[in-house]
Description:
5-stranded parallel beta sheet; alpha/beta
Amino acid sequence: xxxxxxxxxxxxxxxxxxxxxxxxxxxxxxxxxxxxxxxxxxxxxxxxxxxxxxxxxxxxxxxxxxxxxxxxxxxxxxxxxxxxxxxxxxxxxxxxxxxxxxxxxxxxxxxxxxxxxxxxxxxxxxxxxxxxxxxxxxxxxxxxxxxxxxxxxxxxxxxxxxxxxxxxxxxxxxxxxxxxxxxxxxxxxxxxxxxxxxxxxxxxxxxxxxxxxxxxxxxxxxxxxxxxxxxxxxxxxxxxxxxxxxxxxxxxxxxxx
Length: 257
Ligand code: ADP
Ligand code: MG
């Protein structure tokens, strides 16, 4: 016969109980206070586990936050607009967020930081590059697996598609990209980063009509943030040369240049 904690699925309460009981005796808690603390410990344990699970499924390539972002380095970026996005109304209203700008200007950093805000607030998130997305769907061995992999990009509350523009897509890949954007329409926002202007997306997709249709859906409810500034990577490199930063890899994350 399993104990009552197992039967009621209260693993965190079971683990925390001995120390809670000690504290209750020592501080002479009321029954009400004890019960509330005991239930809270179960709740907090569950929330912590759910948070870790969401964090793992988000597949962030690296940890980035808004606190780590130096807005003074990127004056063309509207800090207030980013702070507003961090309030997450775009998640509730399904408004897409697009970052455009040259390499090293913080597009990936900001998309991870905002997606992380959504994750902290309890939303499910998935980060992917466009190249990974299209390969994953394309390389499924049979149609039902392709469908299952496709759903992976459709169901999260927030999907980040990083690096549109670094690889040119085959026509099949372009159709997968289009299908994901179309399907997300009903589910939740997508955050996209690109080093290219929208006028150049036809070349990435190898099909200007498909690119127009995709942009039409993507931009229907969207906030576009264009960063026209210097590369932060170059700044770090220059500082390294001057001996202001320790030698070593400039940034720990992969790709993006
Ligand atoms: P992009 O995706 O636009 O190519 P990243 O977001 O990958 O650029 O930025 C490159 C590196 O520089 C990352 O390590 C990022 O954290 C850092 N970085 C970029 N802009 C800033 C900034 N304004 N403040 C602090 N770090 C920055
Ligand atoms: Mg990037």
